[in-house]
Amino acid sequence: xxxxxxxxxxxxxxxxxxxxxxxxxxxxxxxxxxxxxxxxxxxxxxxxxxxxxxxxxxxxxxxxxxxxxxxxxxxxxxxxxxxxxxxxxxxxxxxxxxxxxxxxxxxxxxxxxxxxxxxxxxxxxxxxxxxxxxxxxxxxxx
Length: 142
Ligand SMILES: [Zn+2]
What we know:
Distance between the termini: 50 Å
Number of domains: 1
Number of strands: 5
Order of helices and strands: HHHEEEEHHEH
Domain SWIM-type: 82-121
GO biological process, one term: double-strand break repair via homologous recombination
Shape: globular
Keywords: Metal-binding, Zinc, Zinc-finger
Structural class: alpha+beta
Number of helices: 6
Strand content: 5-15%
Radius of gyration: 16 Å
Bound molecules: zinc ion
GO cellular component, one term: Shu complex
Protein name: SWIM-type domain-containing protein
Strand order of the largest sheet: 4-3-2-1-5
């Protein structure tokens, strides 16, 4: 007997976020069906991510020559914004504890990564083109 395929929570998250990123209508709109699915998966982090986006606290920096992209997302209390690579990294404590370390509440992404993914998909973050050296400086201070 073959074991039933059970998708991992990470693959479910990627499927839903890919669905979000595939929205082509202008301006982009999240369907209520997709929003409900995202809420089931991300719960309070979705609400927090949407609040971050509504406050305009997500910025996308693109290096002019290399095209490398880094997001800066303001935290609720931190003085400096967090440095975010939406798929792989955030400089916040919750990323280390809950995402990497599977601490108190296992999460696929922290709210800052989620905010960057959603803001990018919905074109709700300004894109700032900077010299490549400026992007390095940004990363060195993360
Ligand atoms: Zn974070």
